[in-house]
Amino acid sequence: MPMLALSAKLLQWNILRNRAQTLIMILAIFGSLSSYVLLGTALTEMSTAVAQSLRSDWPFDLTVNGEILPEQREMIEGLAGVQHLETVASTEVYFVSQLQNVISTPAAGTRLVLELESGAMPATKHEIVLPGELALALQLEVGDEVELMPDHRQALPETYEVSGILSTKASVVKLPLLTEAGLRRLLPTDALPQSLLVQLDGKANLDRLASRIRREFPELAVTVDAAGYEQAQSDFNMSDSLVIGLRGLILIITAASLAVLFYISQRSGSYQTGVLRAIGVEKHWLLLPALVQTLIIFAIGFVLTAWLLPSVALRLGLESTRVVLLSSLRQDMGLYLLVGLISTLLVNLQFLGFSIPRLLKDSW
Known about the structure:
This protein is α+β, with helices and mostly antiparallel strands. It is built from eleven helices and ten strands. The longest helix has 42 residues. It is elongated.
């Protein structure tokens, strides 16, 4: 008990003897953790955006067709590996004697690239936007009229005015676009067939996910884009490797800075260590206060980081949610705590291995 009380006194003395130094250590932990989490998050968002930009004109991996209920959509959205969902209406029509799929103009926030080469998006039920390649092949321009033949019996052709022409860039969607009202002109009923478009994160197993949706909802039709997803996986793996390397570099730099700071903190108490050893205090009782001090400082630094991190991320324009940031923080905290404990342990073992005269002379 006397030694435990002595350790408690040493802990109090270590924390309070140089309050400015203790505050600097807490702020250093806050800065190191924040920079690691925020830079890692920014790199991940950037690599994801780059990988998404490399996708083809149809950046979705699964298409689910049928009467999709809200609870079914919610269940699909909650599957591991599902990154983005959106719904479009579509139907097949005859265009210049060929069967062509046309879709409604997507809602805001779509992952489809809708870059116009000329004109504007359709605003009325009589307007249509054509893919650049199709317009070029048929020598159509903005203001021309085209006819679409619905794919059902007793159908009559419907005439549309070309309001815009999409860019011929590889990433731009290659399907004609109509308003929902314009799409209804091609259907025998007012009900629009909805397609749920699913984009995966590049890590999930496409076939396994599709099989699960088919098993859970046999009334829905599921189609997959295996070739497109294979390319997406390759791009995501490459970007993930780059992010892991850069995060590792950030970890080494910030962890080394923390190690140096802890070394300075412990080194400044070498004289007191020599005095306590000279009066017979055992080494493990001198080691315990230093380790507990490190734990306390890291606990304060973690709480401070968890409190301020979402606000800092918001000011930096990062899209990650508070839940994602704090989850990443909890994972990264272990790394930094390990660095701090190892640094404290090694420095103290080094000093405790010195002779008492050397410790007494090694005062700063």
